[in-house]
Design brief:
single chain; alpha/beta; 8-stranded mixed β-sheet; 3-stranded antiparallel β-sheet; 18 helices; 11 strands; 48% helix; 12% strand; elongated
Length: 550
Amino acid sequence: MNKKNLFLYSFVLATFICYLLVAGATPRWAHFLHRTIFDIVLDILVLLFVWAAVFLFVILIDFLIKKSRAKVIIFWMIAVLFCAFPFYSLRYELIVSLPRILKEELFDTYLRLKLFIYSTFLESRTENVQLFLKVLAIIIIGGAFLYLTYILSKKYRKGFLTVNVVLCCVLLLNLFYYNDRFKTTSLDTSLYSAKIYPLEKKEGELPKTVHIILFDAFAYTEDIFSKGEADIEKYKNFSKLLSQSYVFHKAESPGDNTATSIPKMFTKKDGDVVYSYSKSYIENENERISLYDTPNIFSLAREYNDSVYITGNFHTYCYDFKDWVSDCNDYPAYASFYSLAQKNFIEKIYNRFRIIKASWMPFLGMFGIEDEELFYKVPSLYKIGREHIDTYLWGAQFKSIVFDYQKFMRENNKNALFFTHLNLPHDPYSFNAKGETVADEPVYMESYPAWNKELFLEQAQYMDKVLGILLEDIENTADYDKSLIIITADHSAKNLSTVFPDTRHIPLIVKTPFQKKRKDIDEEYSTLYLMDIVKNYYESRDSGKKVDWF
């Protein structure tokens, strides 16, 4: 192959590689429409850099492989492989564009092929089929590697093997250093069935504390929060707290989901939440603010010399707010994914290889790739298709967060702010109303009961029992009367949109110091201003002056 052909060949490969890096990471067309000149220049620089690297690589192969037929075969294999990836990632869009009859025929063919493959296994579970296909892919790639090594001349064969051994060693070393954004990525599954007990009463003078408890996907429902229609028997602990708190009936979350609402709650900054692997921002018409640098609830607590304790799900709390926390633990959503359930040694090793990708992703921030889609794709690690949240693991994660919260309360002996992001009552259905586990053993269920209002309320009843224990813990470890307690949510029950159509309508309960009576507030209020409530608390605590809370 002459140099001109190598030049064009390398350009085609580089184009597809850049698609995987840029378009593959942010597949939405809206993303490209909003890219700035700066982003486009960076993309061009990336293309030139990748093109140069690929060009050198193909020249190296052209130099090392002497047989012309072998060259053609290898070049075609590489080209087909790289070109197949983008088309594979667009397969859903391509299928949608096909005529209906052809789509039905393709679907029937797919089902027949799937049944045939499943029938070849003694135990036709999805993971067995997937594992077989992965092993088959490894065998094919390994065979191609051995063939490539064989056709190299003896002069370069040893050097080629040496380079690959070094690369393998680097990968193995990375197995012990991956995804440092989250503190805990592997769950203790035994906690799913563990009982939650109240903490022992502390002796002596107790500290004044702030407790922000955020329930994930908790909708405002009349059954719990209504003035006259609440079911007091089923939700005794919520009712007790409501009887001595401000109760907001038209509270709204500043975002439609966990990713967009919580950063705004912390910072009192409105705008688009933009995630990258180096920094995360809130961006509006007037400013672009880094979550690391802007004042927030936790930095406010530190200004008043309070300790700060955080535990929660989904967000990288410990990484984002490391400059302000006294102690912290956080869990990624993918810790509860079925496909990442660590069931034996081989699967643990394989999962480490998947998670290792997350530690490489920060480099994409150098190329100006910043989009919310990237944030969502870190947990799934570019795996095609929606990940499945496992019932058993989801319940184990909930218990882990509760036990972290209790540990922080037990160990704290000074004024402090506690923030706890509980992953329930977000589906899947993990506990019934009594707190009994839905799965009796770690079977890593691929399916769970269809989510509906009845299951949501049943799981909410268990949240009521847990809340009762946590309120007792606050009384046992802090000066309850002098403490501020806030109960809220990041968004409503989005997966029950037919029952709760307003995805931003959330509960907000605020128990201020020395408050003994319920006060209902029917005006609209956004938790974007949660920071104001905390600031009022600190100003009144230090000055002793009465505050007009709302």
